[in-house]
Amino acid sequence: MMRVHFKRFLFIAVLFIFCSTFILQVYKSKVEGKFRLHLLNINKAYSENLRYEKIKFEKKHSNDDSVSTVNKKEIVKSKVDEVADRENIVDKVVIQQKEKIADVVEIKSSNIETTIKKTIADSNKLKLEVNDRVTPENKNIFGNIHPDKNTPGNINPGKKIPENIHPDKEIPGNILSNIQKEATKLLLASVVKESKLKQNKSKSNNNTVISKTNLLNNLPKMQNENDELYSLHERIKTFTLKIEIYNFYNRDKITKMLFKHPLDLKQDRKLLQTLFPNENEESDRIIGQLDVKLVNTTTKKILFWHSNANAKTKYFEELKCNINDCVITNDQKQIDTSDAVMYKTAVRSSNPSPKRPNQVRIFSNLESAGNFPKAVSDIKIHANWSETYRVDSVLVAPYERFTPYSKFTDLPKIPIRNFAKGKTKRVAWFVSNCKAKNNRFEYVKELQKYITVDIYGGCGKLKCKRTNKGCFKMLQTDYKFYLSFENTNCKDYITEKLYWNAYQNDVVPIVMGAHPNDYKRVAPPRSYIHVDMFHSPKQLAEYLNFLDKNDDLYNSYFLWKNTGDFINTKSLCRLCAMVHLAPINPMWYDDTNEWWSGKGICRGAKSRKTYATWKIENIPIL
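RE: above sequence
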């Protein structure tokens, strides 16, 4: 037993000695490596120092014949060439001054004495300038070497210049005397010319000085104005935040994912209820209503009270609706058996009351609430649903609906082309109603004081029928801006004036009508200019003139082009789908007229000479 323990102990001891030896060897090698590196650095520094001392020694004994005569000749020749080049420069100056002598006339005797004194002073000044051109090194060469003679052995380019050579020492030879003579003549001539022309140009010079002074005084003002307008442009851009642009381009993708598969009325009740509007609705829900699919459906009958539609289902089949199990009729006798009744314009008290408890009564109107304020003719009559341009309607019916392509998540950095190319005119407006309730014409009259606005139609001097395709072609090729001014300022009221007149004809729309946030919700980001972003029509005109002169900034309003398309919202398809969903979300308006045209829905002008505006605390006035 003792032998076994002894062997184990011996084995552990040997292993410990071996490991310790190995570790010591590794540590020793590292220390030696560092030491060797240190020696190499010392050796390198010593070698550099030795080389430096060697060079220093060679320079010190450079008077020896260690430098060949050929090299010395080449060095001296380069110095002589340099001096010759400097003399050529002086000769050119003299020639240029000689050409001016031809214009010189007689000198008045009274001015000769003063002129000569000035000439002497100028010649002395010129002498110093010429001396400065010739460096002390060049002077040394001039004094000892001639280019045609052999190079003396005591010239070494690396040798320091003797301290007794001063840069003010006179130049050898007759170089300076010739220059002084020519310079004296030329200076006399120039003085004579100046004295003769001084009186003739005194008045014109004064006027020139005044005009230049005014121009210089105006330059900072012009620069400041451009800086302010550029800053204004940046603030308009930030009205639509980057996160809002991101949400605009990605909202439909999320909706498509949610409604990708068929849903069940009971099991997916909560998801299906999101297709109905809430109290503070911000989404039109159009994509969800188009994409929704149900597992089981039953045929629904829809009565169009004011329509020539016949009872048939081909409408839904032709539109390729996801939910097409509906039939349309205009037979008013079938009101009791209809699941929904659609009323165009207002619901009247003369209309028969529904006998079915779950029947949907739909108020449908695409006109402005400012022009048609009544949704129902009798306050006791209730409408369950609405089909209007309003985003909080059950069925939103916009004039157009922009849907981004799936590959885009943000605005591009560069427009697809230069939309300013070839356009020579600024602002156009097609209008026939000169007495709109928002007094838009008053705004335009003020705007015309600061920028040209071409008005076509009954309110202007220019004529061009909108039925003529050439009118819109003219917009596309000639104009940069278009006034997409609605006739009333009402919530969500945005018509063809934005989509068909402006967007389809590649002009930047200047918009008035709905609230700025309403435009932000439906229009492509940074594609329009709202009048309420400015303090006054004058400020808007200044900004438009600024854009007119800057193609890059103007084209920034077209970055949205080719990032999406205006789709068919298929209102009939969505109507059929929502009628199937009616049982899971019973709803009605307590006061349909209040919802449609109540307080805060529209904004009118305060007087005949003012215009309507949404300028309130929550809108940033830029």
